[in-house]
Structures are given as C-alpha cells and as structure tokens.
C-alpha cells in the first residue's frame, strides 16, 4: 500500500509581508517534513510585487502548489477611506466561500489548514472538512500575546491604557507601552478597532499556533503563553516557535548599486525604512520624510 504525503492547505493574505513568510513555511514543511503543500492566495495585479515574486523562477514554486483566488469586490462593504487592514480582513472573509469550494473539489483533501492572522475567519473550515487548524504568526510571540489579551480587557483597563496612556499589564509578559500599541487598537469607537479586537477571540479556536520566533528570542512571552496560570489560560492551545524563517538571498541580486553603496557606509550609520509591498510615496513625500528624519 502506497503511503500518501500529509497534505496541508495554507491561506495567505495578500501582500509580500504575508505571502513570503507563508511560502517559506510551506517550503520548510515540504522540504524537511515531507508535506504536500497547497497555498491559496488572493490574486493581485500582474504588475504587483506579489505577482512578480510568485511568478519568478527563484520562488521555489516547485516545492509548493500556489492557487490564486479571485479578489472579491468589497466596495459595498467597506468605506473607501477605511484602514487598509480592515479592507484586507473583509476581503479574506469574503473569499472563504471560494476557498471552501476549492477544497471541496480536491481529490486528495488536506488534513491540515494553516491560516495567517488576517485569515482567522477561515478556521471554521477545519470542522467542515475534518482538518486540524493552526494560526501562523509571521511576526512574533509578543504580537500573539497582545492580540489575544486585548479582547479580555474590561472598560477600566481599556480606559487606563487607551485614554490615560498607562502601560498595559499582560500576564507573565513585559507591559505594553501605549506608544507601542498597534494603531487599530487605539480607538474603541472606530470601525478598525471593532473589526480587529474581536479577532483575538478566534485564535483559541485553532488547534495550535505556529510562531516565527524562537525560545532564546522571546523566552518570557513563550513561557507565559504556555502557562495555564498566565497567558496560557487565554491561548489554551500549544505554541510552536519555529523561527527564524528567512528567505535565502538570491546570489544574482547581491551585486546591486544600492547594496554596493550600503557596504561602503560605516557600521550602524544607516536607518532602513520599509513601506511594505503596498506602500508608495511620491518624490516630494520621500524628501519630506528624509528631512523629518
């Protein structure tokens, strides 16, 4: 009897900061653990960085199967001026029927579903198709602790942190300074807050958390997340630190004028500012930012 490979489906949010880590995790599961990997990702414009990356020869697409899903029309669901994170959340939520249909038509259905932090609504598909479900956190354990703790705050704690700007005490973790609080968590009256904060309640519905970190990097937070007397009482599921996940450097891109310039600068003399794959500034805006720095 021929043994079949374990099959994991992964649901990636659009944008390079989401797609690249998901693909790197998929490659690791395929190359080191013998998984068959199917990655579902929302289709982007052909000229976008995401499309160019997925279609490039060096993306190791042979290790994973990437299936594009049509981007849903959310114009009637979200205000055009809404925070980009809210738009992504709604897009991912509206894509679930298509994802469900794709999985249902698979001859060899996945036994595992891995979603990233914007695709949490898809966790419910686990029960429908008898799949184990995991949340992949591409950032760190600190993020996981914060987003799961926020929905548990009472009005007094919320006011102390958001209105009075006091540090937020998180069980077993370093306090969260107001200055370090994610923007979507700053205004309880805003749609962004109402969309993002309740998502923290969905994390424990998964079978576990796969986090791009390691014990020496975040030992205190990881211990708290697994201690039933601390954050473990909220997480309630195993935490798997599998980091660091990093993309190998393409040798063909090491000889580049920008890298040549960087290599000539003194150590610790350059500040790197990233706007993400979806960010863009005009020359005037970039100049103003440079003057500000």
Automatic annotation (TrEMBL):
Keywords: Glycosyltransferase, Transferase. One of its GO terms (molecular function) is coniferyl-alcohol glucosyltransferase activity. This is UDP-glycosyltransferase 72E1.
């Amino acid at each position: 009897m021929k043994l079949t490979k374990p099959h994991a489906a992964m649901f990636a949010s659009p944008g390079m900061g989401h797609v690249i880590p998901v693909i790197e995790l998929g490659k690791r599961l395929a190359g080191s653990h013998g998984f068959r990997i199917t990655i579902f990702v929302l289709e982007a414009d052909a000229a976008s960085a995401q499309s160019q990356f997925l279609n490039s020869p060096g993306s190791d697409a042979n290790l994973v199967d990437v299936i594009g899903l049509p981007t849903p029309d959310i114009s009637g669901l979200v205000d055009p001026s809404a925070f980009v994170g809210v738009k992504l959340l709604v897009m991912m939520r509206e894509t679930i029927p298509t994802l469900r249909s794709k999985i249902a038509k698979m001859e060899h259905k996945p036994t595992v579903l891995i979603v990233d932090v914007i695709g949490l609504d898809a966790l419910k598909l686990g029960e429908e198709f008898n799949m184990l479900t995991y949340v992949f956190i591409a950032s760190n354990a600190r993020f996981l602790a914060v987003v799961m703790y926020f929905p548990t705050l009472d009005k007094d704690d919320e006011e102390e942190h958001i209105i009075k700007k006091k540090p937020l005490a998180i069980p077993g973790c370093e306090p969260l300074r107001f200055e370090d609080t994610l923007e979507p968590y700053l205004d309880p009256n805003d749609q962004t807050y109402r969309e993002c904060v309740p998502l923290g309640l969905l994390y424990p519905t998964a079978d576990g958390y796969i986090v791009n970190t390691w014990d020496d990097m975040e030992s205190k937070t990881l211990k708290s997340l697994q201690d039933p007397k601390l954050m473990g009482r909220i997480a309630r599921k195993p935490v798997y630190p599998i980091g660091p996940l990093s993309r190998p450097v393409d040798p063909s891109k090491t000889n580049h004028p920008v890298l040549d310039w960087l290599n000539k600068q003194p150590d610790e003399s350059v500040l790197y500012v990233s706007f993400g794959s979806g960010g863009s500034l005009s020359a005037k805006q970039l100049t103003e930012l440079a003057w500000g720095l």
